[in-house]
Design brief:
By secondary structure, the protein is an alpha/beta fold. The chain contains 6 helices and 5 strands. A hairpin with a 4-residue loop joins strand 1 and strand 2. Helix 1 packs parallel to helix 2 and helix 4 crosses helix 5. It is globular and about 60 Å long. It starts with 8 loop residues before the first strand and ends with a helix.
């Protein structure tokens, strides 16, 4: 796995509980190219625990086969539909466990940050993001699932963010999400206090 501030191969993951999009984007000099993309589908009629297990297994296969240097996962979206937000959280949880097990550093991006990075505007439509991802990666076509093109857009966004951070001398991308880091720090402080 690469330890440099700018990863070579990034896995973008668009989480869900029925369909998970994944896309691998590699940096070759100043160019970005795709190393593969697709979807992981869970049986729609299966209970949530079985769907999450199927998603985790499919993502493990992708991670094992391609060994990405870093991953970019869409941040949870808080809309009016609480049930949908909970389901998205469950899907993200399955994805994050697989990536943590594999030791892949994860960066989290909101939908509008990804759209701004790839399509130039935070309100870009999914077809617009798909078209821009195709153009950036130099693909003849990128038809099919918007889940896969969203995942490619996440990986492109991470490359853009990592490149900007490296140019500015900022912190390495892929660090833990601030809330997760705060929880880890609190846990370590409690362990030190118990040890005294």
């Amino acid at each position: 796995m690469t330890t440099s501030a700018t990863p070579r191969l990034v896995l973008g993951v668009d989480p869900g509980t029925h369909v998970v999009g994944w896309g691998l984007v590699a940096r070759e000099g100043s160019r970005l190219t795709t190393a593969g993309f697709g979807t992981i589908r869970a049986p729609a009629s299966a209970p949530i625990d079985r769907r999450l297990a199927a998603i985790a297994e499919g993502l493990r296969e992708v991670v094992t086969r391609h060994a990405p240097d870093a991953a970019a996962v869409e941040e949870a979206f808080y809309g009016r539909d609480v049930r949908a937000a909970i389901r998205l959280g469950e899907g993200r949880g399955a994805v994050l466990v697989v990536l943590a097990e594999a030791g892949v550093p994860v960066a989290h991006y909101t939908n509008n940050v990804v759209k701004r990075s790839v399509a130039g505007g935070g309100r870009a439509t999914k077809p617009r993001v798909q078209a821009m991802a195709r153009a950036i990666l130099g693909l003849a076509s990128l038809d099919g699932s918007l889940d896969a093109s969203d995942a490619l857009a996440l990986a492109i966004c991470h490359h853009h963010q990592a490149g900007a951070a490296a140019r500015l001398g900022g912190a390495a991308p892929g660090r833990l999400h601030p809330r997760v880091q705060a929880a880890v720090d609190a846990m370590r402080a409690a362990e030190r206090k118990r040890a005294q």
